[in-house]
Structure to design on (175 residues):
């Protein structure tokens, strides 16, 4: 034996030092557990911040397109002059439902903060228009309600064009 002349304590200490310094040829199981690379999970990629104006423009255009198509279909379904009060009430009732749907859709859109005053103006104009149409549902022959409606629909179209401008959408004719 090569170590026969060394005291036992020195031999034991030498072996322990060699093992503790990693001089062994096999990897230590405690070393494999100490490496955290296998347990680290990558952080998720953050979602891009949505462009509020682009999102609002798409939602507004969808609401306006749907409402305009419904208006066009309704106007094609009725004659230019109503044949009866019942027919006029049905028309105004259906038109009111279209406008209420449009109002609820534009109210639910998240607009950029710089548009707040313009959005508030359109919602107020649309709400007034809905009130006029409610009056016409009740009494389609009310000339004062029809005059208010005729004035308010032009005002609402003007506020709609301001919103469309803010969102980069095409304008609608005011005729």
């Amino acid at each position: 034996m090569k170590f026969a002349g060394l005291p036992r304590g020195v031999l034991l200490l030498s072996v322990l030092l060699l093992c503790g310094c990693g001089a062994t040829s096999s990897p230590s199981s405690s070393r494999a557990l100490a490496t955290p690379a296998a347990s680290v999970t990558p952080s998720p990629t953050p979602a891009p911040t949505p462009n509020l104006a682009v999102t609002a423009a798409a939602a507004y255009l969808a609401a306006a397109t749907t409402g305009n198509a419904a208006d066009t279909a309704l106007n094609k379904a009725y004659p230019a002059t109503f044949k009866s009060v019942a027919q006029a009430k049905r028309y105004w009732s259906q038109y009111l439902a279209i406008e209420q749907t449009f109002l609820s859709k534009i109210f639910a859109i998240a607009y950029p903060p710089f548009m707040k005053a313009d959005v508030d103006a359109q919602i107020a104009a649309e709400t007034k228009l809905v009130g006029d149409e409610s009056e016409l549902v009740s009494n389609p022959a009310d000339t004062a309600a029809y005059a208010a409606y005729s004035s308010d629909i032009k005002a609402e179209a003007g506020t709609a064009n301001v919103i469309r401008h803010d969102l980069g959408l095409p304008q609608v004719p005011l005729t």
Observations:
- The two ends are 112 Å apart (CA to CA).
